[in-house]
Design brief:
Length: 166
Amino acid sequence: MLKIQEIREIIKLIDQSNIDEFSYEQEGAKLKLKKKGEVHTVVASAPTPAPVQPAAVEAPIAAAATPQATPTAQPVKEETKPVEDTNLHKITSPMVGTFYSSPSPDASAYVQIGDKVSENSVVCIVEAMKLFNEIEAEVKGEIVEILVENGQLVEYGQPLFLVKQA
């Protein structure tokens, strides 16, 4: 059974993504989230005989699902992007997952703005389903912009870095 904190984290991740509907089942418990604009519908049920469990789960979900300040980091970044140079290459995410700029929380980032990279240089990790996938630069050049924050949920095809090709 999911804990309240895990459900809140799922709601937060869904809220930050482009996903409109999410469904999860585990040991007879179901969690279904639907997102339409800023209105969230959350349904949670567990076919256990104890009626206390669904009530305990539904109240925090309803509180966590109330419209909150929507994340504005992505639109702001899109507005403040530099003028596109034809020599800039976008390194995009090959999958949906969580972006990590370093191999571990206490390690330094793989790359920073101004770093030189080659085609096979690892620039970040995208975690999907507990698998850590190293993302390579694909081109030779210099990192001019990092478009996502460490720990941010990224979508398939979302630009992660801008590289000025050498």
